[in-house]
Amino acid sequence: MNEGGLAHYLDENFLATDLDCDFGTLCEFSNSTICTFFVVHMNLTQTGTQRISEICGAVYDYLKFLAEEAGRCLNQWDQSNWDFLWNDDPHTFATYVQELKIVQESRFIDQPVHSAYVSTISLANMMHRVSKEDLYSGNFLVKETNFQLYHDLITRLSKQNLCIIWCAPDLTSSFDEDTRLMNERTTGLKYIACDIPTEVTERRLKERPHIRFSLPAKNRMIGEQFMQLPCSNDLKPPADYNAYDDRARYRDYGSLWIQASKDFENPRATFAIRITSAIALESVRNSTLLILFVEELRQTLSNKKRENYHKRMQYELSVIDGGFEIRVSGPSKQLREFYYSVISTAFRRTASMDVEMYESLRALVKSKLSQSVADLDILALNLFHFLTHKPAFLLTEQLETLGSITIADQMAFVTQLLCQLRITAYGRGDFDIEEIKSMYDRTIRSISCIPATSIREIRPTAIPPGTYHFEHENTGASNQQAFFGRYCISPESNAYFEAYNQAIVELLLKEAPIFFTDPTATETKVLVRYLRSVSVSRGPGAIVITVQLNAHSRLTEYLGSLLSAFWICVAPQIVAGVDSFEFQNARSHLTCKIRRQFSTVDRPFDTNWNLISTYDAEFEMAKLMITHVNGMTREKLLNFFVKNYVDPGCQKSIMLKITPPSKSTRKKPHSSSTRSAGEEFIRAHMKQYFAAAKLDCNTLNKHSNLQAAIARAYPESSKKITDTLTFRQG
């Protein structure tokens, strides 16, 4: 209840308490002439019962005040003239609606999942009252904020001549017993209609509000206020039990994270264990042998006859960088026994393998690798990872190596792989903590391994500042699609960089596809995203812009230059030119996106396991990121972008070009006339985009140092990567 609000006014003047608002329907069907009404609830004090007209006047004054504020925000939404304390940031109508929208979305996200029966009944009721095009899953969420609609609606409410006052039976009426009351047929309500003279109504509508209302100050903690689970859950973050003194002998193996939870109606639990070995990262041959080993484990487990007792249990097996991961889930009372059966089957090695079975296994792995190579998105990510991390291996090299591997190689590799291991595990659910400890210990005994004395980890390649161009001809391509991508490497991966990088992506998502549109090309695919190129916390991620289009499109000839022009010349203008409303909207979307990304309500296990594996168990990552989002301004974001991603002395970018097999082995050299035509095409393309976009460049024009950095960076000179070995050595 803010000091300038209606509720505070009524309470301060001892007129009413417990003010509340709602809306309802006068009819069960959507085609009713009068379909909705706005209701104001309050509990009148003894004084208030004698001053009904004053209370009604205050309600209409507040509606008029909101109508004026809504009208003001249509043109100058980011300005406010309220007098607040020096450390308070006053709301405008627009920012207040945005804050309420965040609160509403947070409540919707964190609300419990209803049963199918309840959801079906609720959906049927909504379909009965609204048309199908107005129906969507988040029925209480505002998808797009229409301030013109708010203004029109509140203005209409403040000018209505009809007001129904429904009082409690114990409220003394000013009418005598002879007053003739009318009867409402449906509810049996007795009422009296009072006609207000027209001159009174007209005078009232023209008057300005007598009471000086104001909007509240902004809630600085709005982003993190709704990050926590409901208090009733009383759920603590996962704890590393191998860090405790009583498990010191297991500490050299790795971490054991445990989180007891009572979230489930039926007791359930999930346990995941990640096993890594330095052997798998020594060479491309070993990385291929690891893929074969994990696929063999998958086949062994799939052929295992599952007991009826374990029908409700589930398991997953996947390859990770330098190792593999096993995950089991299901009813808590069966988890430990089922996990024991899985690992005993997985690590029971036979003396030999049937040749026919091995050839079948190798053919399956070859098919999967070939599919990955044919997928341009997967191939591009693999190329970027290979260029920017050590050790790392190409899918194409693994595919070539696969044919020379024998059964003897496989058997020898497995023996070495399982000798020295790093083991990280996480258990969550309704279980006895001692059971999870025993599952971790049983894994070590089943494999009969010792802890890895030296940890060989994937690390970022030391790349000097600059832009590097790498071309790859995809001989495994089945279509004539070309791929162009710019991977802008983030200097760091802490909460500050994560928040600002994702904010940049949020602003570019809409504009990038417009800029790279080619009317002559079909099936053009433009993506802007922020990614972390490895599944473990081995350095920063990158902001990525990728374009896929037909290799014969005219745009392919200039696409590399267009990517440079967009990133250096256009993107800063987009960041600087976004209006205040759109920027606030982007921050709100980003806040909700971060909450969903790190939400422990929907998929708690996946979220925490990702934080353990990718963010070094920083369970406060979401809260830290949202704090940076709350303090973000256009100027701060613009400075961040130019400093880290445009300035030639700091920025690091990889330009990838993947083309289908060329029919001609000779490439035409770029003549001066061709280069001049390309520059003219780029200038014309940017001019056309800026004319349509109508960006506000005032913010960028105020910063001469940023303009100077952009001028130094464009036209951009890139270094071609011809020898990947030399490049990756740094």
Automatic annotation (TrEMBL):
Keywords: Metal-binding. It holds the Pfam family Peptidase_M16_M. One of its GO terms (molecular function) is metal ion binding. It comes from the Eukaryota. The keyword Metal-binding applies. Residues 659-678 are annotated as: Disordered. Residues 107-400 form the Peptidase M16 middle/third domain. The keyword Metal-binding applies. PANTHER family: INSULIN-DEGRADING ENZYME-RELATED (PTHR43690:SF18), NARDILYSIN (PTHR43690). This is Peptidase M16 middle/third domain-containing protein.
